[in-house]
Structure formats: C-alpha cells, structure tokens
Amino acid sequence: MTDTTTRPSGSDTDIKGPGYRVWFDAPARTVHFEGVLRLSTSEYKPIEDLLDRVLLESPALGLRMTELQFLNSSGINMLYKFAIAARKKGETEIKVHGSSNIPWQGKSLPNLKKFLPTIVIALD
Amino acid sequence: MDGIIGEYKEPTDAGPRVMLTFYPGAFPVKWNQCSVAADFFAEYFVDVGEGGLTEEAERRDFVGSVGYVLNELIENAVKFCAGGTVVIDAGVEAGEFVVVVSNQVCGDAVDGLRVKFAELLDGDPAELLMQRVEENAANPELTTSGLGFLTMLSDYKARLGWRFDPAPGNPDNALLKTAARLQVKSS
C-alpha cells in the first residue's frame, strides 16, 4: 500500500514521519524511538536499515524506547529481527531502555531476551 | 463456507456498544486511520464500560491493550479487504472488552485461512511467535510479519475466534468476522 501521508523524511540517521521520529545519537551510541509507530511492514525498511548500519559500526548500542507510546506488530517484528541479527553477529552489548508505564513495552520487550539472551532490558 | 473457529463471541446490547463502518470502495482507508479508529474505541470504552476505570495504571493498561489489539485487527481488515465494508463492532460486558471486526475476503482464500487460524490456536503462542520471527529473519523479502494474532495471544492473553459467512451481494467472496476478547482489568 502506498500512502504518502506516512512517508518518512529526514536523513538516514534521523527518520521522521507523521507522529514519530527515530534518530541515532552517534556520540551516545543510542537510537531514540519516539511517538507512535504503526507502519506497514515495508514502511519499516528505513528504520531497519538504520539499525543494521549502526550495529555494523560497533557492537555497543542503546535503544531508547521511553518516548515510544505505541508499536504495532510489524514494528515488533522489526525489533525482534534486529535482536536475531545481533545474536548472529555475536559479542554485542545492547541495552534497551523502556518504560513500565507504556503497556506494550512491559508485554512485548521481555521477549527480546529469547532472541538475544545477552540483551539488557531496563524498564523505568 | 460457514463455520466457527476458536472462541467466537459477538458484543451484545447488555453493556455499552459502538459500531463503526468504513466504506472503502471509492475512498480507501489510509493506514494511519486504522490507528485513529483503534484509539477512539480504546479511549471511549475506558470511560463508559461498567462505570469506567479509575486507577491510572488500569486505564493505561486498558487503553494500551485495546488500542494494540484493535489496531492489529483493523490493519488486517483494511489490508485484506476484498471489497464491501469494514465493520468494527465493540462493547464491554461482564468484565470483558469484546470486539468483532468484519471484512470480505476472496472465497478462494477461505480454506487456507481456516488452516492458518486453527494452527494459531493449536500451538503454544509464545513458541509459535518465536518460530515465526526466526522465519521472518531468514526471509527478509516477506511483506507481512504474521505476528499480529500471535502477539495478541501471547502478550495480551486475548481470546480469539473467527467465523465465515456468505458475503452479501458477492458470491465470489466470503465475509470474515474476527472476534477478540480482553479482560478489562488484566490482573
């Protein structure tokens, strides 16, 4: 489905769309997820590419989710696939910062450990 | 083509109830409008169902859970709609949020869907979810994640059911009704 209203803008390390932003803070080695992410599977490609790229650069990475209110199943698929990619790469140090006040995070983030046992998940 | 799979239950007038019908023929539903519709139901029922929820944590959990499940159901209905309307029928009764989302699918797809739905309910959803994600990672060209129902079952403890009926006015299609139920207070 082509829908111009959800087409992202910005650079390849700062992806913005209606109601969401995903950006990489290079000095802090942290990807920030903000807003509401309910895209179709193919629309997650720019974010997947960003995650793949930063994982290639360095094994240490933070994912900050404390400002991400909603994520649909296609987005959860993207996160879990990233965890598998990190597991296959080996020797990664990935930490996820989330919020226990955001329901989807308490329900779905813990599954990341099944795909990447070394991942650290911190829920504020 | 009639038949029920899983725990199919429709809302009744015993509690508050809302129906919303999209007519996507000339004006297709945009992807982000699925989210808007899901959030409307979540915000509406958090305040009317059985006096509404008062604890902040309970309200957050209800809005998050209903918003997630309904958004997935509406995204599916819009994505796979083969003509006709998309109808959302939701209510709260006996401590449960009950919703049925209906859309038409091609008659040829019914047998495959029956098998898929039965498999979802037969296995351990957490195990099936793990398997599916591993398959998705191994096949990056897939355009659907297949995680919607699995996350509803595994992470939200939703009770799901499906029903197939003849599609009104179109003998080539079937009317698919997908039912989901969630506890209003999850703990």
TrEMBL record, chain A:
InterPro entries membership: STAS_dom_sf
Protein name per the record: STAS domain-containing protein
TrEMBL record, chain B:
Database matches in InterPro entries: HATPase_C_sf (IPR036890), Slr1658-like (IPR058084)
Listed name of the protein: ATP-binding protein
